[in-house]
Amino acid sequence: MIYHSAIFYPEDRDELVSLAAIEAREAERRAFIVPQMMLQRCAPLYRSVFSRIPDGREILLIVPLRRGQLSADRDGLFFQPQPRRERFFTGDIEILDSGLPVQPEYEAEEYGQELIYPFISIDNPHSALRVIYSSAVSSEEVRKLEALIRGFAGCTVIVSANMTGKTDAPDRGCLEMIRHLEDGDRLLDLYRKGRISSPGAPAIEAVSRVIPGSWKLLGRTEGDKAAGHAALMRE
Predict the structure, then answer these.
(1) 25-234 is classed CATH 3.30.9.10
(2) Which of 42, 68, 82, 224 has a 20 to 30 A CA-CA distance from 170?
(3) Spans of all domains in the chain
(4) Burial per residue of 6-35, b for 16 or more beta-carbon CB atoms within 10 angstroms, e otherwise
(5) 193-229: buried (b, 16+ CB within 10 Å) or exposed (e) per residue?
(6) Exposure string for 121-156, b = 16+ CB within 10 A, e = fewer
């Protein structure tokens, strides 16, 4: 199902190709953070990410649930969309079964999954996609997410999350989050103490424990009005 076209990205195939097509491949990397915003603004950041993912490499997308679980899912932490072959405007995407409870409603709430469809279908048409919707927040929950990620060894991991939650000072918050990432700070502690507001902090912490290296900025947007947006890679 397609929920967010014409809102967060165009439906026109030619326009999508112009936004998503990479020019050249860069050195491969294993993990990335990408923002959630209108594709017209963040497409250069996504192209930078996908230029570093080999075509055919399985992709594991982690989408933090910004509003938490649905009331019916309170006993669960991790969910997945319905496994299927998704027919998108620029080509089909194979969505794999990751053995998690299926909850299609999160696709309608969170648009991060659809934002990467143009890039997979155009730049990585031989790459299959796994999606984990995560509500992990506590230390124990993050350890469980860490174990899940380890179970998909060989995947390129992408966390779809902004650098801040909604804030009156998105640029400042974005720069602070980037600094914490580049310095290798313990994000979960900072998040639980209210010093950072990125809803992706617990998931990024889990990824950092699994994939060695340090976070490096690929780019950021400026003049954001509600949340800070940036893309980073693990190297």
Answers:
(1) no
(2) 68
(3) 25-234
(4) eebbbeeeeebeebbebeeeeeebbbbbbb
(5) eeebbbbbbbbbbbbbebbeeebeebebbeebeebbb
(6) bbbbeebbbbbbbbbbbeeebbeebbebbeebeebb
Helix (H) or strand (E) holding 131: strand 129-134
Alpha-carbon span 112 to 98, nearest angstrom: 18
What distance in Å separates the CA atoms of residue 171 and residue 187, rounded to the nearest whole number?
Answer: 19
Give the pTM: 0.96
CB neighbours of 172 closer than 8 A, spacing ≥ 6? Answer: none
- Rounded CA separation 192/88 (Å): 38
Cβ contact 63:131 at 8 Å: yes
| 201 within 8 A of 137, measured Cβ to Cβ | no
Question: Residue 75: pLDDT above 80?
Answer: no
- Residues 176, 50 contacting (CB under 8 angstroms): no
Cα atoms found within 13 Å of the Cα of residue 107, Cβ hemisphere only:
18
Rounded CA separation 52/23 (Å) = 11
Q: Does residue 38 have a pLDDT over 90?
A: yes
DSSP-derived 3-state class of residue 42: helix
Given pLDDT bands bounded at 50, 70 and 90, which one contains residue 100? very high
